[in-house]
């Protein structure tokens, strides 16, 4: 059961990343909220390194694959992200802010490591940032006034990819903190799935307001 849940989660999250890349390129935007993207990339880079220092493992290989996928998603954010922001956000300001967000994400991961050690830090930080991502996806939907740069595949795969380790760590390994965070993730994830399913029945993705979003080619 443990192996099945681990592999199921790995496949589901790989689908999230692959679909995020596809949708981001299709809609010329980024398909994952930037704070969640930064934390995910920092988590994967950090724990891929710790895994390989201890010896090659399946999870370490998966973390490397996920980190590589995140690099592509980061590329879509850097290419299209500034166009989603107000006019006063210049290229240098966008670059500086992005660097701060990603540096802060690595600092958070390393602080978790220092406080809890590799075993607990990897789990606590993963579920906390997963819950943050769940809320930020709903905020992304609201901010874009629709499903542009998002998809039902991402929403469902994220939910299932989080549900599997919730059962593994929260139920089978009897960790109430992780179980509680996992349940909260499911609540937010299912709300997001419902939003996108409702949007899908309308048959279109709403475009951003012209007054708040520049063309990606704008200086």
Could you describe the 3D structure shown?
By secondary structure, the protein is an all-alpha fold. It has one domain. α2 packs antiparallel against α3 and α5 packs antiparallel against α6. It is globular and about 50 Å long. It has six helices and no strands.
List keywords for this structure.
219 residues; 78% helix; globular; mainly alpha; 6 helices
Summarize the structure.
The protein has 219 residues and is an all-alpha fold. The protein has helices spanning 2-27, 34-54, 58-80, 91-143, 152-172, 176-202. It has one domain.
Topology:
Blueprint: H1 2-27, H2 34-54, H3 58-80, H4 91-143, H5 152-172, H6 176-202
Helix pairs in contact: 1-3, 1-5, 2-3, 2-4, 4-6, 5-6
């Amino acid at each position: 059961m443990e192996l099945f849940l681990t592999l199921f989660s790995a496949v589901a999250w790989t689908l999230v990343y692959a679909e995020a890349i596809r949708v981001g390129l299709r809609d010329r935007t980024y398909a994952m909220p930037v704070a969640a993207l930064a934390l995910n990339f920092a988590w994967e880079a950090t724990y891929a390194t710790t895994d390989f220092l201890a010896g090659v493992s399946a999870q370490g290989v998966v973390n490397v694959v996920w980190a590589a996928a995140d690099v592509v998603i980061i590329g879509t954010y850097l290419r299209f992200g500034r166009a989603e922001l107000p006019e006063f956000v210049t290229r240098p300001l966008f670059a500086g802010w992005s660097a701060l967000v990603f540096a802060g994400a690595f600092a958070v991961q390393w602080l978790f490591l220092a406080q809890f050690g590799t075993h607990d830090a990897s789990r606590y930080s993963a579920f906390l940032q997963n819950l943050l991502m769940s809320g930020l996806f709903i905020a992304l939907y609201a901010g874009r006034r629709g499903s542009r740069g998002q998809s039902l595949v991402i929403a469902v795969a994220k939910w299932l990819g989080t549900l599997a380790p919730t059962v593994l760590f929260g139920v089978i390994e009897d960790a109430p903190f992780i179980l509680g965070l996992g349940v909260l993730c499911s609540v937010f994830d299912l709300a997001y799935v419902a939003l996108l399913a409702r949007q899908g029945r309308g048959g279109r993705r709403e475009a951003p307001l012209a007054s708040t979003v520049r063309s990606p080619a704008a200086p």
